[in-house]
Structure formats: C-alpha cells, structure tokens
Amino acid sequence: MGTSDGVVELAIVKTLFIKTLFVTAGLCLWAASSWAQEGAARFRGDAGHTGTFAGAAPGQLTLRWKFATGRPIVSSPSVVNGTVYVGSADRNLYAVDAATGRIRWKFDAHGDVNSSPAVADGVVYVLSLSGSLYAVDASTGRQRWAFATEGEHRFSARGLFTALPAGEAMPDPWDFYLSSPTVVDGAVYFGSGDGSVYAVDAHSGALRWRYRTGDVVHASPVVVDGKVYVGSWDTYFYALDSKSGGLVWRFKTGEDKKHAHLMMGIQGSAAVVGGVVYFGCRDANVYALDAGTGTLRWKFATDGSWVIASPAVADGKIYFTTSDTKRFEALDAASGRLLYELPDKIYSFSSPAIAGGHAYFGTFDGKVHDVDLEKRQYAGEFATEGYYANGPRYLDAEGFLKQDVVWEGDTLDDMIVGIRSKLFSMGSILSSPVVQDGVVYVSSADGSLYALGN
C-alpha cells in the first residue's frame, strides 16, 4: 500500500482499505448468490442421477470446438456458470470456457482424473488415482483441501477372463472409472478402490463417516431422502443412512466363479426416481429395487451383456446401453418390459443423456449417437478424428470390430494393448454426455473435450 509519515495519508489509506473490504465482501456475496442461483452440477445431472437435462436439444451434432488434453479422458464433464469442468488421464482437472473452448485453469491432481467433477457452492470436487478427493476453487483452480483414502486400485481376481497365467491375480482392464462425488447438505459422498464409501465435510474435508464394503467401489453414490445408494464390485448394492453411514439394506446380485468373475460386480451407477432404484450390473441384468426396503421389483435380462452405463430415467421409461450385445434399450420403468431397442455396432459404456426428447451416448468406435425418443430411431451422429484415422484399421466395411485384429493373444497384457492402443486410438467415447443450452459436451479417449451443436 506504500509508506507515509503523515497522519492524513495514513487515514486515507485506512479508509481505502476499509472500502476495499466492503467491496470484496460484496463481490463474494454476489458470487455466492450467483452459484446458489445457478445450482450445482454433478454426474448424471441431478440429485437422482436420472441423466436428464432441461432445455433444448441441438438440431444436429456439429463440432463447435474441441479442447485437447495430453491423455485419454473417461471423465464426464460438468457445466456450471459458463465453465466446463473435466478430468483427464494427464493428471489434471481442467476448467474450460463453455462458449469458446479456451482453458481457464488446470489443477494437478497427482494422478489420472477418471472421476467426473461435482460442483457446488463455488467448489469443484473430484477424485484421482492418487487416492485423494480434492476440493478446488471453481474460479481460480486453487486447492482448498484434500482428503486421502487408503489408496486406489482396480478390481482384481485370479485368472480374470480366463487370461493366462491362470493363477495370477489380475486387475480388470475394463475398470476405467473412479467414483464421482455427490454433494448434498454440506457433505461429499464417494466410493473408493479401498472398498469403502465415504462421507466428508464439504467445507473442511474432515471425515464424517466411512462404510466398508467387500470390494472396490467405483460406482457413484446417489443421495436421496436421507439415504446413500451405491453398488460395489462385491456384488452387493447398498443403501446407507446419509447422516451416520449405517447400513439400511443391501441387495445381492449374481456371482460368476465359473467364468473367473467375468459376469459379476456393479461397476455402473444407479438412478433413483419415485421411490425406485434402477441400476445395471455385469451379471447381465438391469435391476429395479424398492428404495425404502431393497425389495426386488423387477429385473431385465440383457442376453448375456454387461451393463456398465448408468440408466437414464424420463417420462416413465428407462434408457441404457449395453456392452456385448451392442444395443440402446428402452424399458417401461414400472414393469421392466422392453419397449424397443436399437442396434449398434460396438460396445458402449457411455450413459445416455436425455434432453428435448433426444438421448445422446457414445461408443468405443469414437462416435456420439443421437436417438429421437419419440420416433424410436437414430437421428444423427458425430465421429471423432480417431474414427476416421484408425477406424479402417480396426473396423470392417460395415463398421463392426475386426475381432482377430484387435484381440491378439491370451494374456492380460494382450488385452490391455487391444483396449489402450487399438480401441482408444479410434477416439472411444466412454464418458457420459452433458447437454446444456442446446450444446452436447462430451469427452473422448483421444484426449479431447468436444462441444457439439448447431
């Protein structure tokens, strides 16, 4: 502020300092008000993780801009106050201008950011492979606090997928995602590779409670009506008390010891609507449970396919994609009856986003698909540069995967090469799209965040 020996000048400095404090306080109050008015952003759009977004859908999926990071992205974006927040395997959390695609800031999360950011009250919460949950100022990218778990790891089993050597404990190479935080009533809820579900204080990062499941928890919790709903790789789906972390109920899904744990575990996240919990499982079923009791209402068999995607729920219907059977499915939410299905040509882990009567999801060949829900048909698509550059190497003339070219050998190493070096080279879309103001935001394994619209 400068120096002065004069009393008058000192008084002036004090007056200016006091005025600055009032102006700063006013700006802080305005900023807090702005954040409160525009609400929070989280994985799957709303508190129930329904995957629905208000507002219009884009007329077509035309590239508006692309923002490139250094490594593959499986994190789904969050959009708040004109800023897109997304994580990357280059170990950074990014804030990008939603209108232009220009970077605002990046934060070093000390590990791959395979979690989707949650934004609440001017703070971004995200997990990384460092094993920590980070709270970052949404405007500046500065760290507010970090909470360390006991560490991250993928689901592992001996002889996984019958890969050789059969006696070796192997990490699952398809376990791409980390849990995405959910912020409710001043608490941040998330799962961890250490097998626990956590609740920490949103302001301080102090632990509120911890619940241990039997295995990795990479699904994202839903917090509704005082309960935390989340699945685990231990084959159980849990309902926990949001205040205490006590078990309310748990539901057992299928096991698969015959096929080396191939068809078991809850990798995806749930949606909770109207007192019903909907989720997919690697045991080749989609489940609907009573949210209060955990009683099974119905289950839908997917012809032997994993369901990694989180279901979207809108207008009494649920929508999801499948992996092995390569389908977009629509069910009656009350009964689980199949309404219709649309075929695709390759696996999908991407969770559909619903907006303006359309559903948007991605596939491993680097495409984003647009489904007209009223007409029950595809309405358009967008393909990444990777699709055009490397699709001819790994896809046949009809667009189906060249199995013998992609999957060579019978070891875990061979499988990882097939996924990371071949599938991902096509710009695989594993993230779940977000729709806001007529623009679809989605990230790709080519390392880019895309904005698509008219």
Overview of the structural elements:
The chain is globular, with a radius of gyration of 23 Å. The protein is 13% helix and 37% strand. The N and C termini lie far apart (50 Å). By secondary structure, it is mostly beta strands. The chain contains four helices and 34 strands. Strand 8 and strand 9 form a beta hairpin. The chain has a four-stranded antiparallel sheet with strand order 1-34-33-32, with no helix packed on it.
Write the layout of secondary structure elements.
Elements: H1 7-38, E1 62-68, E2 78-80, E3 83-87, E4 92-97, E5 103-108, E6 118-120, E7 123-127, E8 132-137, E9 143-148, E10 156-158, E11 169-171, E12 182-184, E13 187-191, E14 196-201, E15 207-212, E16 222-224, E17 227-231, E18 236-241, E19 247-252, E20 271-273, E21 276-281, E22 285-290, E23 296-301, E24 312-314, E25 317-321, E26 327-332, E27 338-343, E28 353-355, E29 358-362, E30 367-372, E31 377-383, H2 385-394, H3 403-406, H4 412-423, E32 434-436, E33 439-443, E34 448-453
Antiparallel strand pairs: 1-34, 2-3, 3-4, 4-5, 6-7, 7-8, 8-9, 10-11, 12-13, 13-14, 14-15, 16-17, 17-18, 18-19, 20-21, 21-22, 22-23, 24-25, 25-26, 26-27, 28-29, 29-30, 30-31, 32-33, 33-34
Strand percentage? 35-45%
Widest beta sheet: strand line-up: 1-34-33-32
In percent, how helical is the residue content? 10-25%
Quaternary structure state of the chains depicted: single chain
What keyword list fits this structure?
454 residues; mainly beta; four-stranded antiparallel β-sheet; globular
